Amino acid sequence: MKVDVLLGLQWGDEGKGKVVDVLTPRYDIITRFQGGPNAGHTLEFNNHKHILHNIPSGIFREDKLNMITNGVVLDPIVFKREIDSLEAMGIDLTKNLWISRRAHLILPTHRILDAASEAAKGKSKIGSTLKGIGPTYMDKTGRNGLRVGDLDLDFESKYKALKAKHQVLLKIYDYEYNMDEEEKFFEGIEVIRKFKRVDTEYELNRFMEQGKSILAEGAQGTLLDIDFGSYPFVTSSNTICAGACTGMGIAPTSIGEVYGIFKAYCTRVGSGPFPSELLDDEGERLRDIGKEFGSTTGRPRRCGWLDLIALKYSLMLNGVTQLIMTKTDVLDTFETIKVATAYSIDGVLTDQLPYNLSADVKPVYTEMQGWKTDLTGVRSKEQFPRELSEYIRFLEKELKVPIKFISVGPDREQIITL
Ligand code: GDP
Ligand code: IMO
Ligand code: MG
Fold first, then answer.
1. Whose CA is nearest to atom 3 of ligand 2?
2. What is the rounded CA–CA span in Å between residue 7 and residue 391?
C-alpha cells in the first residue's frame, strides 16, 4: 500500500495532532518524518489534553506501530520527558515506537547555539522555538551531526568532538552559557537505548509490500518550509510532501493520499511576514476564542484571516488530494468572515505569492456572511448552517480540492466527515 501524508498548509499549528489521532484507527503505522521538538501537537480526548513534541500522534491508539524516521531531529531530553509522562499514564511505548538510526540528535550545545544565533540577530531574529532545530540541521547538512545509530559506535568520543566544535562557535558568538543540561542529555540517551533502533526506510518499504497502511504526520507547515516558506523566517526542514520521501526513504511513487490541513483562519507564531494578519480587536478576538497560544513555547500566536493566495501555493507544492478545515467553531460568533483572494502590490493585483512577502503586500478580501451558530455540538453536515455550507462551497471552488473533514472543537469527537 502507499503512504498517506498529512501536512500543515499554513504556518503550523493547524491541528495536525488532533486529526492524526482521529485518522489513526484507519492505519497500521504512524510516522513523524521531519522537524523535532519545535512541534507541539495537541490531542484531546476523555477530557484530557496531551501535547506531543517528538513522538507521533498515533500513540494513544492501541496496536499501532509508531516510527520516528530519519528526517527527524531528536532531542533525548525532550524525548525522555515525553516518555516519562506517558509512562506515568500507564503507556509503555518501548514495544510500539521505533526510531531510525539515521535520525540526528539535538545536543545541549545545539540549543545553546540556537539561542546565541537568535541573540546575535537582535531585532531580525527568526522567533525560533529555541529547541536547537536550526543548528542540528546545519550539522546534518554540514556533515558533522551525531545520529541515533552512533549510540552503538563510540558515542562518547563523537559527542565530545561535536561539543568541542560547538564550544569554538560559542566563543565566536561571545555567548555566556552553562552545561547544566548535559547530565539530562545522557539520561535521555539511556532512554533511547531502550527503544528499537532500526533502518526505518527498510522497515517501511517492507511494510508497504506487505500491504500495511502508513500515515506520515508532518510537522510545522508549508509556509515554514526551508525552500518555499517565508525565508529566512522558516524552520530548517522541508515541511512539504517531498520532505516525506526524503524524511522516510520512500519513493515519490509511494505517496498515496495527501491530506492538507488548514485553519478556517490563519495564525503564525514567531517573526516574519503575514499579509492577512489582524492587529486590531478582531485579531485579539480570534486569539481569545481560538486559544491561540503556542503548544511548545506558550507564546501568543499572531492571528488573521484565511489567505487563499498562500493556501493555493501550498496546494500546488504538496499535491493535496483532500482538505481538512479545523477550528471552524472559532468563527461561530463572527458577523462576517473575510478571506484574502488576491494581493495588491503597488496597486497591481496578483494571485501569486511574491518572492518578497513584505509589508507592501496588501490582501484583497472577499467578505462572507458568518453563520452565528454554535458548531461545537454539530456532528453531521445536515446540521450545518447555510452560511457554513456556502463558506465550504466557496473554498472548494477556489481551491479545486474537496474538503473532506470539518473540525469543530479540540476533542477527538468534534469532527465531521463530508
Ligand atoms: P498542530 O501543531 O498542528 O498539531 O496544532 P496545535 O496542537 O499546536 O494547535 C492546535 C490547537 O487547536 C490545539 O490546542 C488543539 O487542541 C486545538 N484544536 C484543534 N482542532 C480544533 C478545532 O476544530 N476547534 C478548536 N476550537 N480547537 C481545535
Ligand atoms: P507544529 O508542528 C508553529 C516556527 C517558530 C519560528 C520558526 C522557526 O506544532 O505546527 P524553529 O524552532 O524551527 O527554529 O522556529 O518556525 N515554528 C512553528 N510554528 N508550529 C510549529 O510546529 C512550529 N515549529 C516551528 O515559531 O517562527
Ligand atoms: Mg503545534
1. 12
2. 22
Q: Is 110 considered catalytic here? A: no
Q: Is the dihedral of CA 233, 342, 8, 372 positive or negative?
A: positive
- Could you give the CA distance from residue 82 to residue 112 in angstroms, rounded to a whole number? 21
Enter the C-alpha cell of residue 230: 517565508
The answer to whether 250 and 205 are in contact (CB under 8 A) is: yes
Question: From ligand 3's centre to the CA of 86, what distance in Å?
Answer: 19
At 294 the pLDDT is 87
Cα distance between residue 330 and residue 287, in whole Å: 9
Residue 159 CA to its chain's centroid (Å): 28
Phi, psi dihedral angles at 330 (to 5 degrees): -65, -25
Spot the catalytic one: 4, 21, 28, 41.
41
Ligand 2 pocket, residues with Cβ under 6 angstroms: 8, 11-13, 38-41, 126-129, 131, 133-134, 219-221, 224, 233, 235, 269-270, 295
Cell 471552524 found at: 328
Predicted confidence at residue 207, as pLDDT, reads: 98
The C-alpha cell of 34 is what?
Answer: 521531519
Closest CA to 147 of 92, 182, 198: 198
Strand partners, 304: 266, 277
| 127 CB neighbour count, 10 Å cutoff | 16
pLDDT confidence of 358, banded at 50, 70, 90? confident
Candidate from 63-72, 197-206, 247-256, 295-304 with smallest mean pLDDT = 295-304
Task: Note whether 133 and 235 are within 8 A (CB).
Answer: yes
Amino acid at the residue 199: D
Q: How far apart are CA 185 and CA 73, in angstroms?
A: 14
Query: 185 near 108, Cβ under 8 Å?
Result: yes
Closest CA relative to residue 332, chosen from 393, 251, 265, 402: 265
Tens-place pLDDT, residues 269-326: 999 999 999 999 999 999 999 999 988 888 899 999 999 999 999 999 999 999 999 9
Q: 387 alpha carbon to ligand 2 midpoint, in Å?
A: 33
In tens, the pLDDT along 83-111 reads: 999 999 999 999 999 999 999 999 999 99
Residues 33, 16 contacting (CB under 8 angstroms): no
Q: How far apart are CA 23 and CA 6, in angstroms?
A: 10
pLDDT in tens, 237-255: 999 999 999 999 999 999 9
